[in-house]
């Protein structure tokens, strides 16, 4: 996994996502999720392409249940785009790089 992707947990979510001064794309995922695995190389490329503009973060829903519950995550992969602590947009499913770039560009 790309070292530009931040792994967050329930305990660090507020400090690293909600209180972040930059736009944060959070990927809610699980190890057993096939579409989540398909999305991983796309997120690696996005992390490089948007470095300095958008922080890419991942939170495992099996190991961290408080935050997914708080944001009503019902299916994975789900991505929430945060800015100034507020969810600006939501996208579900495994996306291509072009689709994910278009989603980010339309919302930042």
UniProtKB/TrEMBL annotation:
Transmembrane segments: none annotated. The record marks 27 as: Deprotonates C-terminal active site Cys. GO terms for cellular component: cytosol. PROSITE patterns: THIOREDOXIN_1, THIOREDOXIN_2. Disulfide bonds join 33-36. Keywords: Disulfide bond, Electron transport, Redox-active center, Transport. The active site is at 33 (nucleophile), 36 (nucleophile). It comes from the Bacteria. Pfam families: Thioredoxin. The record marks 34-35 as: Contributes to redox potential value. Belongs to the thioredoxin family. This is Thioredoxin. It comes from Vesicomyosocius okutanii subsp. Calyptogena okutanii (strain HA).
